Amino acid sequence: MLTVTVLGSGTSHGVPMIGCHCRVCTSDDPRDKRYRPSIVLGIDGHNVLVDTSPEMRLQLIAAGIDHIEQVLYTHGHADHIHGIDDLRRFNESLGRPVPVYAQQEVLQDIESRFPYIFAHGTQGGGIPSLDLHPIDGPLAFNGRTIIPVPVWHGATRVLAYRVDNFAYVTDTNRIPLESQAMLADLDVLILDALRREPHPTHFNFREALEMVEILRPRQTYFTHLTHSTLHAEVEQELPPGVSLAYDGLRLELP
Hints:
Metallo-beta-lactamase, Chain A, 8 helices, alpha/beta
């Protein structure tokens, strides 16, 4: 069994956004409360965390997830990595460093932005112990294959991930043809779709729907949603087979 738990479905500001009193930021619908983007892949009871958002601790507690055995990063933007310090909790449960996989340049970003993690002789305060691995091809985890799929977020190369007939594609405005081929025949796709209006580095709803027409997954969920998206309203506008993700959404794929 493959399970997918959406920890966060929001944009880099999160929803509600600081100082905003719009109808989405003040909505009573829990689906309009959005942490920064992240998911957990549950592979036969073993958990892989994709990205460490700034709310990682709160996300995992809310989802009832108490163990993580591996971390994958999509890219190095702050909303995807700045919860990294809370990985130290899993050093205790694993009894060893947490394996972390990312593009080489993302690993270099992590080492430069969080030097205290890697400084020899640092004492006190609790420091995560991480085992960094550059991604140079498919990854094996608990008998399954996790396939990294390159996409583009403006000029930033981002890794989407495919496991069996599920794929997670966040932060993108361009999926090259060769990557589109790697995303064929999906049962479930979680795809970046920021808002109605155009954006220079993210799909808007129209562009995301055009990509859905190309890839033709059986079910799609849009993620990385801004505070301009009222869940109940936009959900009614989407075609069959396309829905909005929300924090706490749990999918089971046999």
